[in-house]
Specification:
five-stranded mixed sheet, about 525 residues
Length: about 525
C-alpha cells in the first residue's frame, strides 16, 4: 500500500482456489499466465483509491469447450471488462438512477469519483436494464403522461396492489396498449380515469377484465359541471345582490350623465379586431385548431370569441384591469358626484374617502371622476362570490364549512334555483362516492337527466355512457391513486432530463427503483 498526492494505491494478489470456466463451468487446473489489473475503488475520505490487482489466467482443459483460456474474477471486487470495482459501480449506478447524466457527473466530480455522463448512462442500460414480467398484474392501473403537453403522450402501467410501475409505452394509442395486454395476459381489473381512450384496447385484448373508473376524477368532473352552472347563473346572483343594495342606498338627486361607452383603448381595439378575424375564418369553415394556429391563440380563447357576443367581449377586456384600492370607495364617490351634479372637487373627495380608510393616490380619484364626466366609468358591480368559491363550498363536506361560508352558500341557493338543484345533486353524488353506494348511481343519473341544469345533465350523460366502469368505481375499493403518484414521479424524472434524453433512457429510469 502506498499513499502519494492524494491517491491511495492498494497492491493486491488473488489467492483463491482456481476458478471455473465461464462457458462450461469446469474448474481449472493449469495456470496460463498472470497480469495486473487496475481498478478504481470507492474513495477513502478525500483520497482516491486505486487497486492494483494481480490475477491469473487459466487454461480450460475441456476439449469440447470453445474457450481456451479465461481470467479469474474476485467476487465482490472485479468483473469482466470493467475498470472499476463492483462496489464503485454500484455507487455510480445508484447516482445515475437518481440524477441521470450531467447532474450525476457533476455530483461525482464533487465526490472525487471518476465518471463521465456517458459512462453513467451506460450503467443504466443492458445487461442491468430492468425486465418486464411475462404476465400482467392482477390489478393494473393505466394512465397517460405528456412528453410534450398537447403534442406527444406516453402510457404508464402500474401494479396497483404493489404500487410499482410495470412498464412504460411510447404512446397512448389503443393499438399499442392492446398489443401489450395480448403479450402480457393475466389482468383481471383495470383502473383508469374518465378518459375512455384505453377502453377499446381492453375490449379487444382483455374482454374479461373489469374496468374501474377513478373516484377522484369523477369528483373532479362533477366539480367542473357545478362550476360551469355557477358561471351560467351569475346574473341571478348579481341581480339579487343589486336589489338588496338598492334598498339600502338612499335615493340621490337625479342627474343626467353622458351615455356610457367603452374607451378607445388599445386592448378594446385589439379585442374587436380579433373578434372580426376569428368570425371571418369561421365563416370559411375553419376549425378551432386551425384558427388557433393561424392567429397564434389558445383554442379556449377561440371558442370564447366564437360563443360570446361582440358587445360582451370589450366589456370583459376592460374589466380585466385590476380593481385596485379604489374599488370599495367607488359607490361613495359616485353618490357624492351625483349629489353635487358633477360640481365637486377631486381633492375634496380624495380627503373624504381618505378619512374613510382609502390608502391610494389622489391621481386615481381624479381619473375616476374624469371617467364619470365622460361617461366611460365602469359600472359598480355587486360583490358576489366567484363560481370557483361557490363550487368549493358545495363540494366540501357540510361540517367543514364555517358559519359565514354556510350563510353565503344559503344566500346563493336563495338567489338561484338552478344552482340550488346543482348543489343538491352534487352533494348526493359526493355521498355516493365517499360511501361507495354504486347501487344508487342509476337513480341519481335519472334524477339529473330529468330536471338538472344543462352542465349537470351533460355530466350525467357521460356517466351513463361509462356506466359499468363508474359503478365499479363506486363499489370496489380500487382506484387510480397509485397510478397518479407514479405519474407525478414520471413528470419529475422527465423534467429533470430537460427533454434531451431518449424514450429508452426515460423508461429505464422510470422502471428502476432506487
Amino acid at each position: 500500500m502506498s499513499d502519494s498526492s492524494g491517491i491511495l494505491v492498494v497492491e493486491a494478489v488473488s489467492t483463491a482456489r482456481p476458478g471455473r470456466c465461464p462457458n462450461c463451468r469446469k474448474q481449472a487446473r493449469r495456470v496460463h499466465s498472470t497480469y495486473q489489473r487496475t481498478l478504481d475503488e470507492r474513495p477513502l475520505g478525500s483520497r482516491r483509491v486505486i487497486v492494483r490487482l494481480r490475477v491469473r489466467r487459466y487454461f480450460c482443459d475441456r476439449k469440447s469447450c470453445s474457450r481456451t483460456t479465461f481470467v479469474e474474477q474476485v467476487p465482490g471486487l472485479s468483473t469482466r471488462y470493467r475498470r472499476s470495482s463492483t462496489g464503485l459501480a454500484s455507487w455510480l449506478r445508484s447516482i445515475a438512477i437518481e440524477l441521470g447524466g450531467r447532474p450525476a457527473a457533476r455530483l461525482c466530480c464533487r465526490l472525487r469519483l471518476t465518471a463521465g455522463r456517458t459512462r453513467l448512462l451506460r450503467l443504466l442500460t443492458a445487461p442491468t436494464a430492468p425486465t418486464v414480467p411475462d404476465r400482467a398484474p392482477r390489478v393494473l392501473g393505466v394512465d397517460e403522461f405528456a412528453f410534450r403537453k398537447g403534442c406527444t403522450y406516453g402510457t404508464v402501467l402500474v401494479d396497483v396492489e404493489a404500487g410499482r410501475v410495470v412498464d412504460v409505452l411510447p404512446d397512448r394509442t389503443s393499438e399499442t396498449f392492446a398489443t401489450w395486454l395480448t403479450e402480457h395476459p393475466g389482468v383481471e381489473i383495470i383502473c383508469r380515469d374518465r378518459a375512455t381512450a384505453y377502453t377499446k384496447a381492453v375490449k379487444e385484448a382483455a374482454p374479461n377484465a373489469l374496468e374501474v373508473a377513478d373516484r377522484w376524477h369523477l369528483l373532479q368532473n362533477l366539480s367542473a359541471a357545478v362550476e360551469k352552472t355557477c358561471h351560467q347563473h351569475r346574473d341571478c346572483l348579481r341581480k339579487r345582490a343589486e336589489d338588496e343594495t338598492v334598498t339600502e342606498v338612499p335615493e340621490a338627486a337625479p342627474m343626467l350623465l353622458p351615455p356610457a361607452e367603452l374607451p378607445r383603448t388599445q386592448i378594446i381595439e385589439r379585442t374587436r379586431h380579433r373578434y372580426e378575424d376569428i368570425h371571418r375564418l369561421l365563416e370559411k369553415r375553419w376549425t378551432i385548431s386551425a384558427i388557433a394556429r393561424r392567429l397564434n391563440l389558445d383554442r379556449k380563447t377561440v371558442r370564447r370569441f366564437r360563443d360570446t357576443d361582440l358587445d360582451e367581449l370589450p366589456a370583459s377586456a376592460r374589466d380585466r384591469r385590476p380593481n385596485g384600492v379604489l374599488e370599495p370607495f367607488k359607490a361613495y364617490l359616485n353618490a357624492r358626484f351625483t349629489e353635487a351634479q358633477g360640481q365637486v372637487s377631486g381633492t375634496r373627495l380624495f380627503l373624504e374617502i381618505q378619512a374613510r380608510g382609502y390608502r391610494g393616490s389622489r391621481q386615481v380619484v381624479r381619473k375616476h371622476l374624469a371617467a364619470l364626466r365622460a361617461g366611460t366609468a365602469e359600472p359598480i358591480r355587486a360583490d358576489i362570490p366567484s363560481p370557483r368559491k361557490i363550487t368549493s363550498w358545495i363540494m366540501r363536506p357540510r361540517e367543514t364549512l364555517t358559519e359565514s361560508q354556510d350563510e353565503c352558500l344559503l344566500q346563493v341557493r336563495l338567489a338561484c334555483p338552478d344552482i340550488t338543484r346543482a348543489c343538491d345533486l352534487a352533494r348526493a353524488f359526493a355521498d355516493l362516492v365517499r360511501h361507495r353506494r354504486g347501487f344508487l348511481l342509476l337513480e341519481w343519473i335519472r334524477q339529473a337527466e330529468r330536471d338538472a341544469p344543462k352542465p349537470m345533465q351533460g355530466f350525467a350523460g357521460f356517466l351513463r355512457q361509462d356506466l359499468d366502469a363508474v359503478t365499479a368505481g363506486l363499489t370496489l375499493p380500487w382506484s387510480s391513486g397509485a397510478v397518479e403518484g407514479n405519474v407525478n414521479r414520471v413528470k419529475t424524472l422527465k423534467r429533470a432530463m430537460y427533454g434531451r434524453a431518449s424514450f429508452n433512457l426515460l423508461r429505464t429510469r422510470i422502471l428502476i427503483r432506487p
